[in-house]
Structures are given as structure tokens and as C-alpha cells.
Amino acid sequence: MPEGIGWIVDADVRGYFDSIDRTHLRAILRQRVNDGSLLCLIGKWLRAGVMDGGVLQHPETGVVQGGVISPVLANVMLHHVLDVWFAQEVQPRLKGRSFLTRFADDFVIGCEREADARRVMAVLPKRFARFGLRIHPEKTALIAFSTPSARQGSAEGNGTFDFLGLTHYWAQSRRGYWVIKRKTARKRLRRTTKALWRWCRVNRHLPLQDQYGMLCQKLRGHFQYYGIRGNYRLLDVVRRQAEEAWRFWLSRRSHKSAISWERFQQLRKMFVLPTPKIVHSL
Q1: If we measure between CA atoms, which residue out of 140, 128, 38, 116 comes closest to residue 82?
Q2: What's the pTM value of the predicted model, to 2 decimals?
Q3: How confident is residue 152, by pLDDT bands cut at 50, 70 and 90?
Q4: Helix (H, G, I), strand (E, B) or coil at 13
């Protein structure tokens, strides 16, 4: 985050992929695409329909969930609605420095001055409403995020915000300086541990080698995304939760007896789960 930015607008678009207005989307596409055959092909993609519970449905709004072109169309729409608008119309009118960071439909806006952040906060719903989109009122907040030594109290923020599954917060470095750190968001951590528990329960009948291979893949994938500097402790929590879930459901493969801790220790030496690894250093 740029130095001096003290206010964060953490916003969320309600049901973005399902609520995209196709009329507005086609109008945006025509600004850049002059090939009629390509526009016709995109229209067929939009009308492909969605298979839900064995029934084919053709919704009138939104992009087809799971369609190969859907992420691209959604990104093109939001680029026009938010990115271009913020760079060309909003930033020139702000008195302090600002930035916009967006990934798909998740975005945060940082402002140096509180007045600028409140102006952006007030105009965002109006901008999105012009294109048939809605800002989620409960998941959108104005947060004071300046350095703790210079922080001015705000009743609307707690000094932390979640973005892309990571909680951003202030903490002191080993040298005593205030720095921004990141850790796995609480909801994502809970969802991951529940998913591991559920997977071990459903697949406890598989051979040990197969279970071990899949657990390793799941843990490595988690470490690849959340393996960011300062987040090692929560990575280790996920590994220990996976180990506990595995032992619990292996003990219930048979009604005769549970796996003792000594027996499981022997299995741990044979099937060593991946250790947490810091992949990203920001």
C-alpha cells in the first residue's frame, strides 16, 4: 500500500456474476469490438444456459456460471464500470493521493484523506446502479488504516480489512517499526479446516496411499496461495488440523478399535505431510 494512505474503502458487489445486465455489457463490448461475428458468438455464449439439478435454465441476466468466456466478460464489464471511471473521473477530483486495487469483483480503494474516502463511499452505489449493479451494504465499509502512532479513531473501522482471503493489519516488526502484515482471513481458515474434515470423512475408505496423496495436494495448494510472509503460524494450524482430521476418521474405518496414538505416530513417519512453506514475500 502506498505510504501515507490512511483510509480504505472495502467494497463488495452483491451477486456480481449473476446480476450483470447484458444490455450494458453488449454496449461496452461494441466500444472495442467491431467484428459482428465475434459479437454474435459472445451472444451465443451468454444464451447457452445453466444446468442446475439436471434442469437446463436460461437466465435473462448475468454470465453463464462455469462458462469459459464468463470471467473475461465479467472483467471487461467491471473494467469499464470501475477501473476507467476511477482513473478518469474520480482521481482527478480528489485532493489527496489514492489508489484502486481490484481482482475480479473484489476491490479496495485507498485514500490519503478521510473526506476523499467518504466522497468515494457515497458515489460508489450510484455509479454501479447506472449499470444495474448493487454494492453490498453490509460488506462495504470505510476503514481507518493509518499507521497506529498517527491513527485517528474512527467508529466505522477496526484498523483491519479482508481482501482476497487475507486479513491486512498493522503490527510491529522485530526492529519496532509499524508494518502491514497479512494472515489468512478467519472465514477462509474455518472453511478450509471444515473442508479437510469433510474430505477425510467421505474418503476414509480409500487406501492410505491414495488418501495421503490427495491430502498432500490439498495442503500444497493451500500453502502456495496463503504462504505469505508473516502467515506461517496459520499455515501450521491448517497442517495440524489436517493431521487430526485424518487420524480421527482413520480410527473410524473399523468398528473394532480406534488407531492408537503410537500407531498413528508410525503412520506419520511413513506418510509425512508437507510442512508449511513461505512462497510469497511482500
Answers
A1: 128
A2: 0.81
A3: very low
A4: strand
